[in-house]
């Protein structure tokens, strides 16, 4: 029924005068609306009977815990880290790395690349310098170092 | 709760500056209100103390972002209602198993009492706990957002503008949630009643 749509306004005490009288006349006939009002009255009453009184004062305990938690580094970082500055820092790191990578004379150095350079030097040494007798990498490195100091 | 309390502002500033006592005082001022929301929304549980603590710890973490131009009360209530909605969503899978705990005759009597408006207030004294269980079982079936709105409006009797502030929504949205909660409760209650009647017919 169309007048049922006034239920919430009636329940919230937001209708008066003719509308209110009309709705009350409707209530006398509409068992659905009547049952709904009874149920809501009963539910609200019951839930208000359930005491929502705090059994003890938690203020000291909560404040202590809050300040203890605040002293840990991870909490400080999580609490103060804002998305904007965090993304800006990340973007800056990315830009620095890509600029370094794209530099024309940039050559990453690693143990492997140094070893490759040593091998190139070795291939440039003539066979009569005794390289044929070399048994291990260590001997090769020692030989190359000797060559380097003699030059 | 709508007006800015200068004492609250001073306590907040002192808390941010590292005064533990100021935060304890702030908690003391609002812990009962937060407890009431937690208790009425999540039901009577041993976890309610943890819930109140968690609400204030969340507030503490975000306190440096709080704008002192606004009152603290609705802000902490909003944190509390959001926390309760999260908790209700998490425990959605384990709703109150009310009916198995009660005898058939008790179920019948409780449901009959709930559906009539006659002398209810005098009749409740004998078994408040069971009626509360019925009420909680009905509320458990509601969407958490509707449930919190219903509690704030129907049980705590807050005006709609305050309900809206606690929920972090517009007043219109708050009205819609309360209205849906009312209709949904009636629908679920009817379902319980018809289930009860089916059981009775089977017994006969």
Walk me through this protein's architecture.
The complex is a heterodimer of chains A (151) and B (204). Helices cover 70% and strands 0% of the residues of chain A. With 151 residues, chain A is mainly α. Chain A is rod-shaped and about 120 Å long. Chain A starts with 6 loop residues before the first helix and ends with a helix. The mean pLDDT of chain B is 83. Chain B has helices at 6-16, 20-42, 48-62, 72-90, 104-115, 120-123, 128-140, 144-155, 160-167, 171-203. Chain B has ten helices and no strands. In chain B, helix 3 crosses helix 4. Chains A and B meet through helix 1, helix 3, helix 4 and helix 5 of A and helix 2, helix 3, helix 5, helix 7 and helix 8 of B.
Keywords, separated by commas or semicolons:
heterodimer, A: mainly alpha, B: 204 residues, mainly alpha, 10 helices, 74% helix, elongated
* Overall mean confidence score, pLDDT of chain B: 83
Mean pLDDT of chain A: 79
Beta fraction of chain A:
under 5%
How far do the termini of chain B sit from each other? 56 Å
Q: What are the secondary-structure elements of chain B, in order, as H or E?
A: HHHHHHHHHH
Query: Strand pairing plus helix content of chain B: what structural class?
Result: mainly alpha
